[in-house]
Amino acid sequence: DFEVGDEIAVYAYAKLDSYFETQPDYKSPDVPPQSHFVNARTNASWSYDRGNQTIQGRHFYFSVPVTIVVGAEGSEIKELSE
Q1: Mean pLDDT, residues 21-42
Q2: How many CB atoms lie within 10 A of CB 20?
Q3: Quick check: 57 and 17 in contact, CB under 8 A?
Q4: Rounded CA separation 24/12 (Å)
């Protein structure tokens, strides 16, 4: 249960861009998607290092949080993260 004045962080958590993994049957050559972009968005076991930076592939993503304050019943929603 939440109390008036409590602050709540709300996140979206989603699997995105899985359609990038699919290609038409008539593609040539017959290989899966190869780009860094597609691998970074669809392949959790893929990673790429360049200097001191690493890109790690993943399937699931969090949004930027939205922080709201619980108000009295019927009150206007107050968002702190604007």
Answers
A1: 81
A2: 16
A3: no
A4: 31
Q: Compute the distance between CA of residue 68 and CA of residue 78 in angstroms, rounded to an integer.
A: 6
Q: Give exposure, 38-61, as e/b (b: 16+ Cβ within 10 Å).
A: bbbbbbeeeeeeeeeeeeebbeee
Q: How many CB atoms lie within 10 A of CB 69?
A: 15
In the chain, the amino acid numbered 6 is D
Global pTM value: 0.59
Q: Could you give the CA distance from residue 82 to residue 78 in angstroms, rounded to a whole number?
A: 10
CB 71 within 8 A of CB 78: yes
Q: 71: which 2 tokens?
A: 């108000």
